[in-house]
Amino acid sequence: MRYQISGKQIDIGEALQTHVQSGLGAVVDKYAQRPTDANVIFSKSAHEYVCESTIHLSTGLTASAKAHAAEIYSAFELCCDKMEKQLRRYKRRLKDHHKERTQPVEFIGASSYILAASEDTEAEEPDSLQPMIIAEMEARVPALSVGEAVMQMELQGAPVLVFRNEGHNGVNVVYRREDGNIGWIDTKQQ
């Protein structure tokens, strides 16, 4: 497994890098099959250290965790605990479904835009109905089953996931509802 350990405006020493590789390696070896790479970023937010880790699995799924603590090693330990919990759930779900994905997840390209929020909410009528685009990025839309999409959304800690349904190739959305349940929007053609 490849490790990329870095710090945002802080120096990361050899001791911390070794600690991260051994700690994260033990967790990944225990719960995940064939991880490809891990990305760990340390940063400082006010008086706390922040540790963000992302692990890419060979199946195409991605697990990510983030933690804050007063000390940098404590931040990593908390982040590692969250990652372990996510990978344990992922492995349990794979066992529950009694099937393993034989092919890697297929991705298609999509455009992702960030639109500017309207500054004046009291304006009577806008000059144009066209929103102002302030950022344009490439996004990857995976081809998954609904169960895998829910698992991927939870592994990423994301509130919503857009995916292509393997059953009928339609674009679907899963999202976390305010009541804690998962919502699913299916756009299959009738």
From TrEMBL:
UniProt GO cellular component terms: cytosolic small ribosomal subunit
Gene Ontology terms for molecular function: ribosomal small subunit binding
Subcellular location: Cytoplasm
Keyword Thylakoid: no
Main location per the UniProt record: cytoplasm
Subunit structure: Interacts with 100S ribosomes. Associates exclusively with 100S ribosomes, which are dimers of 70S ribosomes.
Name of the protein: Ribosome hibernation promoting factor
